[in-house]
Amino acid sequence: MNILIVSQYFWPENFRINDLVQGLGERGHNVTVLTGQPNYPSGQFFPGYGWNGPKEEHLSGARILRVPLIPRGKGGNLHLILNYLSFVVTASWGVFFRMGRHEHFDAIFVFQTSPVTVGFPAALAKWRYKAPILFWVLDLWPESLSATGAIRSPLILGLVKRGVRWIYSRCSRVLVQSRAFETNVAALGVPLDKIMYFPNWMEAEYEAACHSKKPGNKNKPDRASEFRIVFAGNIGAAQDFPAILDAAEIVAKESPHVQWIIAGDGRMAPWVKSEVKRRNLSKHFSFLGQLPSSAMPEIFSTADALLVTLRSAPIFSLTIPGKVQSYLSAGKPLLAMLDGEGARVITESGGGTTCNAGDSNTLAQNIAKLAGLSPEQRHAMGHKGRAYARQEFGRNNLFNRLESWITEVIEECRSKG
């Protein structure tokens, strides 16, 4: 099949769409990716990228067409709005002028984390190439805009909602990363038989670790007395670092051997670093910065527990953070401070402890409990999580599912002429 993928984000930015493109290529499909110049999460163009390109690259057998955009910067909502809108304009231009008139695509797959506006150039591509759209929703709009406080105007939120409804109406399938998303998507006019549950999967490097016999490196000769908590991913408002730091203060008083390893970057990273200093927690925190996903299995192997958090908000209670699947496959206990679907998955797996979003006191208590377990007990907990991840989030099974849906929509499109 010839598949066009539309995504504002792509390699060398760390998103699961990278692994999906690789997986589709491994299965013999011809993949073209329409994307922007990489600038997430630092807000600045990656070295070697910028306004002048590169315009075309090849990765894992896929052709990557890049269009210019205004980088996110670090200046707040205005920069983000310009970043989002610029990709809509340049990607729409790219549909007509970066891809040939006589190109053929069997289907269009849209990777929709924020922003949902990535759907507009995809809709143009559908019109031009007469190809069906499968739209993968990882972030609900306008709900997430309201929850993060990015937009508070009821008028603007209403306009965004109308835009989302327009995008969904042009999709043959709407894929949702959480079953809890189904109600919200259906409320915008998508028939239930066109809404498909498609969760995040274990990426290739994690799945390889999942099938190994050991859950990770248990030999830590230089850190034998430490209890290491690893947080990986975006450092933003949604991750509720104020509550994490509150828990860290509590833990530091009772268990000074606990170390917090932060592997990631984001808009709130400078604030978090300054707040760690202000709270006299510097000796308990290490900031590794943004690392490639290929480095994560080794980082996870040195951890005693893996931390996942989300702020308290209705939209976040519907979400399963993508890192949950990666954490579970690492075979290490999870420490979760979040509500809803994410907490349900972790509890159901038996692979970690959970507490309500924003509950710093209980998070600190859970850290003390995990630190008090023997290595064998933590190993058993991690093993349960790994087994659950293999069953529920196996890469091969989920890619098979996606292939079948793509085939279905292509056949439907052809039958309609």
TrEMBL record:
Any Pfam family the entry gives: Glyco_trans_4_4
Annotated TM spans: none
Domain Glycosyltransferase subfamily 4-like N-terminal: 16-201
UniProt GO molecular function: glycosyltransferase activity
Annotated keywords: Transferase
InterPro entries: Glyco_trans_4-like_N
CDD domains, A to Z: GT4_WbuB-like (cd03794)
Keyword Transferase: yes
Keyword Metal-binding applies: no
Protein name as annotated: Group 1 glycosyl transferase
Organism: Desulfovibrio ferrophilus
